[in-house]
Amino acid sequence: MLTLRRVLSINRKQIVKQSTVKLTVHRTSTLGNNCYQFHLSRSLCNESSSSLAKISQRRLLRINNSVLNKTPCRQISPTVALLIRPLTRIGALLFGRFFRRWWAKKTPEEKKLYMDWVSKQRQKIYGALGFFMAILFMFYIMNIEVDPLTGRSRFIIMTSNQQKVLGRLTFENYLENFKDFIVPTTHPAYKRLLRVVNRILEANQDLPQVKEREWTLSVIDKDDPNAYVLPGGNIFVHIGSLKLTENDDQLAIIIAHEVAHVLLQHPIEQISRNFLQDILMAVPIAVVWALFPDLLALLLQAFGINMFDILVTYPYSRKLENEADNIGLQLAAKACYDVRHAVVLWGIMRTLAELKINPEVVPWLNTHPNHEDREKNLTKQLPLAIATRQQSRCPMLNPADPIKYFNSLSLKEREIKMERRGFVQSKIML
């Protein structure tokens, strides 16, 4: 049942007239008690039941996030978690710089007195540092949970209610930023995306992470191919994504990947991880600014942060991207999309890099794997995804393999196809 209605949505500064679509789909058939084996996880069995998927586009709404694991000890507010990075880095910098200047003003005799005092109190100082590290370690352990989709342990510092607050604030901020670019619900692009999004969500109602959210869809009139889903389940897709993709199968792969990030709580996990890392980084930053002149300290801090990103942050982020690729492929498979187009999609992205339209991704300097690596990873995941598709009682796949067809095309032929979709600017002189 599809219901269209007009609503007035109140923004903090102005009243904006906005179209809203509320789509209600009742499943008339069930998938039985099929089990779906996810990547690095236990089997998840869906129960036969009718399901309800709701997708709305509006300015303000109550976001119902899923509760994966309620842990009473989490008391970190979203504001503190987001501000900890600039506060700790600036605070450590100022403290170290102040200490260096203060120390430089001391006479040799005064310095010796302080050094002697530190030497006498070193056991207490080490004990205090050890106690702090123990408290931090206990805080870390108490906030470890296991992801139900992958079986992987993760560190989450926000309660479900705090995640709702963060999701709502982020959603309102995005709507304010894109208020002049959100297309109406009568736009063909919106209707197409609504159909794809609903099909994915409706097919995955056996997952509490999907069922317990109130999902929204906003289509942005921008040509860059981009899509993202906010922690509260708010889906944003740029119209450029429709030009990049050849069909709904590829579009579904993009959306399912972004939805997977939210189901896996990757945004919250990254905030939590950054919170812990920034606390640990405060001490070395303060030491650097205490020991070296300003310019050298600035260079050493930048070098240290970049090296930490290359060695720790980027590999972790690439791991999350691969995880979202794998789970997203399962979501699309359960929705009966042709999952082989996931490989084709990243073949298209690789082609854009080969044509110098998009920059080449250097993995060890990037938060995302390069296109070829994602192509290979998804190729390995195809047998599992196709098996999931068969368990979901989907129609047989087209005998014509889209991967073989794509690989048979020359670089020029691929470029021409993208020109016809309007994604690549035509080079033909009129």
From TrEMBL:
Cofactor note: Binds 1 zinc ion per subunit.
Keyword Lipoprotein among UniProt keywords: no
Recorded GO CC terms: mitochondrial inner membrane
Regions that span the bilayer: 125-142
Keyword ATP-binding: no
Entry keywords, A to Z: Hydrolase, Membrane, Metal-binding, Metalloprotease, Protease, Transmembrane, Transmembrane helix, Zinc
Any one GO MF annotation of this record: metalloendopeptidase activity
Cofactor(s) needed for function: Zn(2+)
Pfam families: Peptidase_M48
Biological process, per Gene Ontology: mitochondrial protein processing; protein quality control for misfolded or incompletely synthesized proteins
Segments forming domain Peptidase M48: 194-380
Similarity comment text for this entry: Belongs to the peptidase M48 family.
Listed name of the protein: Metalloendopeptidase OMA1, mitochondrial
